[in-house]
Design brief:
It is a single chain. With 159 residues, this protein is an alpha+beta fold. The chain has a single domain (25-156), classed as OB fold (Dihydrolipoamide Acetyltransferase, E2P). The chain has helices at residues 2-19, 27-33, 147-156; strands at residues 36-48, 60-62, 69-82, 94-100, 106-107, 120-128, 131-134, 141-143. Helix 2 packs across helix 3. The chain is globular. The chain starts with a helix and ends with a helix.
């Protein structure tokens, strides 16, 4: 009986590691999944608990079964794609916020996410139930250096 438990335990470890991994998404797939693609920079990033309180440094922020959310404020400086007309007639730059629940196990870092501030990124979002959400749980940012590749994928459109 002891050996059965050991075998089950040995099987569960690789399965649990595999369960939280994502297959990499191509630029084309990111573009297809997104209703909004924009260029801008991170203004702030916080971990928020269900009561709306900021989670403190060193505390568990996200992971399976954890109800906390990462909350971004992002300044949109250039809209590359907007199939929702969310940005129609809006002046840029414009601050938007979006939250998501990460399946990755994260703790609030010592710098309280200050190192994220000011980073320039391309962001891939969806308009879902009257709010902005990341277009994918893991692949919602890209470096601005990839802008020409993203613009090319947008021009090609859905296949």
């Amino acid at each position: 009986m002891k050996y059965i438990y050991i075998q089950i335990f040995c099987l569960l470890i690789p399965l649990s590691l595999w369960a939280t991994k994502f297959r990499p998404l191509s630029i084309e797939d990111r573009v297809k999944r997104s209703s909004i693609i924009a260029e801008g920079e991170i203004v702030s990033l916080q971990c928020i608990d269900p009561k709306g309180q900021r989670v403190g440094v060193g505390k568990r922020c996200t992971g399976p079964g954890n109800p906390n959310q990462l909350s971004y404020v992002f300044t949109i400086k250039n809209v590359l794609k907007d199939s929702t007309n969310f940005f129609k007639n809006k002046n840029l730059p414009l601050n938007v916020s979006f939250k998501f629940t990460s399946m990755a196990h994260l703790r609030v870092p010592e710098d309280n996410y200050d190192s994220a501030k000011g980073k320039k990124r391309l962001v891939f979002l969806q308009w879902f139930k009257d709010e902005l959400k990341p277009a994918h749980q893991a692949f919602y940012f890209m470096n601005v250096e990839d802008l020409p590749k993203v613009e090319e994928a947008i021009k090609k459109g859905p296949e």
